[in-house]
């Protein structure tokens, strides 16, 4: 049994679909604060519960008795974390500690953790490899870094083995067109751009004076399908007895500015995307580009969909077929 926390969210639901297709017995726990029950295969056991509620979480772990957990449940919006640090620290840290305690109590052996490039902060060099200094510039990144330390300490003391995957910018939609990205409100760049292309309000570009070629932040975008494949490789590596205290970056090793994303989206949608510049968002680094050679070498991960054109095309295809998002 594989238990997926936050499995009704954008990344978690795509991973659940892949697990089911691979033949893994899978269950999901999610409080549906940002996720969608409709994003999940109907046959997958679903538990509506919050990781902060010890009794509910213990009941889920007791009933499912997972061998491994894929842990996505978290507060993940950087601007929100800057305004309300405790609103991010408390659920992310406390929820994870409750989860680890329940895993130890009921014998779950492994955890694959959804971490972030935000643990690095403002880069001293690019591409950023796993040995880059860890200097997060926002509470969200700090919370994920603290959790990585908790995982390491717990594993060292005989607790669950882990692999931590540090994402850069996840984007795109299921290539088969069945699933996509649906947040309310939407804060991620690619779906926000596509909302504007469909007639929504103009886009706000946060910052025009960054030390980049066009003055807007540069990010490394990784297609959701490539992110999913990395999770399955990490899970399989743990189940097969590979080293169980590993950290890997997940990115395409190519950065695009906000204005480059807008231009590409205009070409794909055939629509003009109006935008205006706003002030920088506090806590946003100027450039984040991944060095992902380690996971390619050790787990044979090969990104297949992460060029910007494919990312936007798949997202646009899902957006047009689901203009209102998921039905729930």
How far is the N terminus from the C terminus?
27 Å
Overall mean pLDDT = 94
* Strand content bin: 15-25%
Helix share, percent: 25-40%
Number of helices in the DSSP assignment: 10
Compute the gyration radius: what is it? Answer: 19 Å
Provide the spatial order of strands within the biggest beta sheet.
3-2-1-4-5-6-10
Oligomer: single chain
What is the fourth-level CATH superfamily of the largest domain? NAD(P)-binding Rossmann-like Domain
What is the fold-level CATH name, i.e. the topology of the largest domain? Rossmann fold
Computed structural class:
alpha/beta
**Broad shape:** globular
Q: What is the second-level CATH architecture of the largest domain?
A: 3-Layer(aba) Sandwich
SSE topology string: EHEEHEHHEHEEHEEHEEHEEHH
Number of domains: 2
List the helices and strands and how they pair.
Layout lengths: L1 E4 L4 H12 L4 E5 L15 E3 L5 H11 L3 E4 L6 H6 L1 H22 L3 E7 L22 H18 L4 E7 L1 E3 L17 H9 L5 E4 L11 E6 H16 L5 E6 L4 E3 H12 L5 E4 L8 E2 L4 H7 L8 H14 L7
Parallel strand pairs: 1-2, 1-4, 2-3, 4-5, 5-6, 6-10, 7-9, 8-12, 9-13
Antiparallel strand pairs: 9-11
Helix pairs in contact: 1-7, 2-4, 4-5, 6-8, 6-10, 8-10
How would you describe this protein?
By secondary structure, this protein is of the alpha/beta class. It has 2 domains: 2-171 and 220-250, Rossmann fold, CATH 3.40.50.720; 189-219 and 253-321, UDP-galactose 4-epimerase, domain 1 (Alpha-Beta Complex). The chain has helices at 10-21, 54-64, 78-83, 85-106, 139-156, 189-197, 224-239, 258-269, 293-299, 308-321; strands spanning 2-5, 26-30, 46-48, 68-71, 110-116, 161-167, 169-171, 203-206, 218-223, 245-250, 255-257, 275-278, 287-288. It has a 7-stranded parallel beta sheet, with helices on both faces. Strands 7, 9, 11 and 13 form a 4-stranded mixed beta sheet that branches. Strands 8-12 form a two-stranded parallel ribbon. Strand 1 (2-5), helix 1 (10-21) and strand 2 form a beta-alpha-beta unit. Helix 6 packs across helix 10 (308-321). The protein starts with a strand and ends in a 7-residue tail after the last helix.
């Amino acid at each position: 049994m594989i238990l997926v926390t936050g499995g009704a969210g954008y990344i978690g639901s795509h991973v659940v679909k892949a697990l089911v297709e691979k033949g893994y017995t899978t269950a999901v726990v999610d409080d549906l604060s940002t996720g969608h029950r409709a994003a999940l295969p109907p046959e997958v056991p679903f538990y509506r519960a919050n990781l902060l509620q010890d009794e509910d979480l213990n009941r889920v772990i007791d009933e499912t008795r997972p061998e491994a957990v894929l842990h996505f449940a978290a507060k993940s919006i950087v601007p929100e974390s800057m305004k309300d640090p405790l609103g991010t620290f408390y659920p992310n840290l406390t929820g994870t500690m409750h989860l680890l305690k329940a895993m130890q109590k009921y014998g779950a052996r492994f955890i694959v953790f959804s971490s972030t490039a935000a643990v690095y902060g403002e880069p001293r060099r690019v591409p950023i490899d796993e040995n880059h200094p860890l200097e997060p510039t926002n509470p969200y990144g700090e919370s994920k870094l603290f959790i990585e330390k908790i995982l390491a300490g717990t594993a060292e003391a005989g607790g669950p083995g882990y692999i931590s995957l540090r994402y850069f910018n996840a984007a795109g939609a299921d290539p088969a067109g069945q699933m996509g990205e649906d947040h309310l409100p939407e804060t991620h760049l690619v779906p926000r751009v596509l909302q504007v292309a469909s007639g929504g309000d103009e886009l706000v570009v946060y910052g025009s004076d960054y030390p980049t070629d066009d003055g807007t932040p540069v990010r490394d975008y990784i297609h959701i399908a490539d992110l999913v494949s990395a999770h399955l490789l990490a899970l399989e590596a743990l189940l097969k007895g590979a080293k169980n205290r590993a950290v890997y970056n997940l990115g395409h090793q190519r950065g695009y500015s906000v204005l480059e994303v807008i231009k590409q989206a205009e070409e794909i949608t055939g629509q003009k995307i109006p935008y205006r510049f706003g002030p920088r968002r506090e806590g946003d680094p100027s450039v984040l580009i991944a060095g992902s050679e380690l996971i390619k070498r050790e787990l044979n991960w090969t990104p297949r969909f992460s060029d910007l054109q494919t990312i936007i095309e798949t997202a646009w295809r899902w957006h047009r077929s689901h203009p209102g998002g998921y039905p729930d």
